[in-house]
Structures are given as structure tokens and as C-alpha cells.
């Protein structure tokens, strides 16, 4: 799938060189980090042991720039590695991602022990930049101004055997005043539909049964070719791929969310009844100041249509509290939308300045104590709604895809965890028969908490899957690797389908 021009030339890496990738930010960065790991392993590096905490031959920081203190966090981490690098000959440090794209030469000025700085558009160059820095014994800073290769076309070390990200576009054409992403990742560029579907079919052939379509503004897909229905066509095409059980996507923009997408979601069985629809604010005045090209009525209209077409859909959102100029009346409009929309979950954040964004220099910045008080009121309301909505699930029979690493107390409670079709997290009683991550179980929901469900009765059915086979094969390979067979295979874990970083990147 990748031409020779998309990748760095081969580099000569001594055997047993280890690497560690540290990821900050949204799903786009998680996806990029899988590719960075894949590139390094293709170049001959092997993963550092779990918990190595910087004790590796190469440490890569994949950074995020949407937080006010993102640079402080980076330089603090770089500072902690400086003495380790000084005492470890040959160790290299690389910095990539959005902050690298933004700060460029500043990084090596502030942290001259950094060996490589690369941007969001040229992650494929990391191995050759490391080699060049080693040979020339000086820092290499290379920031491309346009995309060299879609992340999904690069080698990968996927985080999961049974679930995968698939990039369908990069960049963003919006101009939200709180977001710096368009300046760092560029204008939207869509990937060819045939390439997307070919990658998905390859993943399914490897045992993957769930994919998440990924883009900064995923439902604007098709803008390159002027086809406003390209995204709904892509969803329907995913429905025709045999063996693909679950399709998700993140994150859409209300401006581009059209009726044909709702119809495709409702009519395509493997497109899951889940929607993450960023709100940011319920106030028309604030939305205008944010340059969000929709208003409250339009947003609630989308929610109403989705619920009419997909009654059991779980709808989640992003909300920013305390945007410059937000009045108490504006905030009450946000509270009104939350009551009306009845989100399953909301990723709620206090506004913080993003250097380089128009909002950072706006007048009427809201005092911290006011923002904090509003934030607490909003969180309390959403907690109440989340719990009420989860209680409506009690008594339902659901199919869960068994997950790994999602239930921190599973060992103590003798439970396993899985995701329902609508992406709710469910902890269920461990059955007598073997159940593997990627397998599917049928359970009855018996209890609801605000952020998870319980199925305390016996599992009603277990369906062993090709995804479970893939997990088992990978687990066996990693066991062999730990015994001394260095296969360089991916570690185990499932990518979290919902955004955890909002206000920028993949959460518009």
C-alpha cells in the first residue's frame, strides 16, 4: 500500500536497540504513534520493556499543542531525561507532533540535548532523521509544510489485535477561534476511498473486527472532490465488508452532519449506534465568537433526527466552559442543551488559552473562580443525566465485544469488561469457559452507574471470533518474545474510541 517514496530509506540499526514512544493529545496522535512505532520496528528497533520510563535507546515524544501548558509539560519531561541521556552514550531523543510543528527550532534552543524534531506532516522520516543525527552528531530539525503520506499508509505497531484506527482525512478547513489545529495540521486532505477500503479489508483479514474511521472533521470527507455524500457512501461501503462487525467514527462537525449520514448509520448494520457530536457551547452568542458555523437550534435538530432514526443511540459530546465573554445567560443556554440532548457522556473542559489562537487575545477572559463554579455545576448535571440514561439500560440484553485493560478492578471482582454496540463500558461476570479479548458475549444488564454498567448474572452466550483468534495468536507471540524471541510484534490493548482530549485536534 505504500510507495517507496512514502518512507525513509533503510537505516542501519544495531541489534537490540530499544525505543519508547510517549503520546499526548487526541486520537490522531495515538494513530500517529502506532505508525512511529511501526517505522522504528521496521528500522530494526525493539520496544523497551513495560515501565522503562525513559530507559530506552530512543525516546520519542509525540506532542499536543492544544493545552495552555503543553510546552511546560514537554520541557519538564525533556529536562528529566537530560541527565539520563548524559550518562547513556548513544541515547537519542526525538520530538514530533503538533507542538513540534508549532515551535520548530525553539525546541532545540531550549533543550539542546534533543536529537530530532519532526512535524505532523513527515512522521515517516523519523528513522532516517535519527540516523542522520547520529552520523552528523548534531540535531536534525525537519518540518514539512504539507503531508508526505497518510499515517495509515505507513508501517504500524497497532495497539490492538481486534480494533484499529483508520485515517480517512487529515487537516481541517474550519477556523474555530479556540483551536490551533488547522495551523499545525493544515487544510483538510481526503484519502482515496479505495485506499481506505483496501486497508480495512487488510485489517479484517488480519483478524480486526472493529474499526474507527478517523479525521479532524470526519464527516466533511469528500470536500476535496465536491461530493457532500462521500462520507455516507463510505459508511455504507464499510457495511459490505465481510467480517467487519463494528464501525465507529470520530469526530464529526455539526455543520457537515447531513441527513444522508443519519440514514447510512441507521441502515448499515455494522455501523454502531453511537455518535460523538461536539457541542462546545449552547449559546448562539458564544458559538458565533468561537466561529462555530451552527447554532443551538441546528444542533438540537440533529440530535432529534438521530434519536428518531436510531432510538438506542448513545450520544456524547465536548463542552468548553468559560470561553471569553461567556455570561451567566450564555452558560445557562449550555445547561439547557445538556438537559434537552441528554448526552450519555460529556467531555467537559474549562477554557484555557491556546497560544496562537484568536481566543487567547480576546477581551473579557473569565475569572478562574467563575469558570470553576460553572464547570462544577455542569459536571453535576451531566453526572445526573448519565446515571439516569444508564439506568434505562437495566434489563436489556446486549452483545459485548470483550476488551482488555478497560476494567481496572476486574481481577479483584472476577469480572471481565466489554463494550456494548453503543460503546458503553460493561463489566460482566467471568464465565466458566474461556473468553478472549475480541470475542463476543451476550449478557443482561443488572445495574447502572454513571460511567459503566454491570451484568452480574451468568453470561447468556459466548461467541468465539476471528478477532479473538488474532488476540490469542498475538499473545502467544509476545510470550515467545519475552522468552527471548524478538519478533517486534504489537503490544495488546484496544484504542479508546471516544475522544479524551477536546477543544482541538480530532474533536471539532
TrEMBL record:
List positions binding [4Fe-4S] cluster 1: 26, 64, 98
Q: Does the keyword tRNA processing apply?
A: yes
- Principal location class: cytoplasm
- Please report the stretch or stretches of sequence annotated as the TRAM domain: 391-459
- Identify the cofactor(s): [4Fe-4S] cluster
Supply the alphabetized keyword list: 4Fe-4S, Cytoplasm, Iron, Iron-sulfur, Metal-binding, S-adenosyl-L-methionine, Transferase, tRNA processing
| Subcellular localization, as worded in the UniProt entry | Cytoplasm
Cite the PROSITE patterns for this sequence: MTTASE_N (PS51449), MTTASE_RADICAL (PS01278), RADICAL_SAM (PS51918), TRAM (PS50926)
MTTase N-terminal domain: from which residue to which, for each copy? 17-135
Q: Which domain of life is it from?
A: Bacteria
Q: What GO terms are given for molecular function?
A: tRNA-2-methylthio-N(6)-dimethylallyladenosine(37) synthase activity
Annotated [4Fe-4S] cluster 2 binding sites: 172, 176, 179
**KW Calcium (keyword) present:** no
Reaction catalysed by this chain? N(6)-dimethylallyladenosine(37) in tRNA + (sulfur carrier)-SH + AH2 + 2 S-adenosyl-L-methionine = 2-methylsulfanyl-N(6)-dimethylallyladenosine(37) in tRNA + (sulfur carrier)-H + 5'-deoxyadenosine + L-methionine + A + S-adenosyl-L-homocysteine + 2 H(+)
Cofactor binding comment, as recorded: Binds 2 [4Fe-4S] clusters. One cluster is coordinated with 3 cysteines and an exchangeable S-adenosyl-L-methionine.
EC number(s) stated in the UniProt entry for this protein: 2.8.4.3
Q: How does it assemble?
A: Monomer.
Q: What does this protein do?
A: Catalyzes the methylthiolation of N6-(dimethylallyl)adenosine (i(6)A), leading to the formation of 2-methylthio-N6-(dimethylallyl)adenosine (ms(2)i(6)A) at position 37 in tRNAs that read codons beginning with uridine.
Q: Which family is this protein grouped under?
A: Belongs to the methylthiotransferase family. MiaB subfamily.
> What protein name is recorded for this chain?
tRNA-2-methylthio-N(6)-dimethylallyladenosine synthase
The species this protein was found in? Streptomyces doebereineriae
Q: Lineage of the native species? A: Bacteria, Bacillati, Actinomycetota, Actinomycetes, Kitasatosporales
Q: Which gene encodes it?
A: miaB
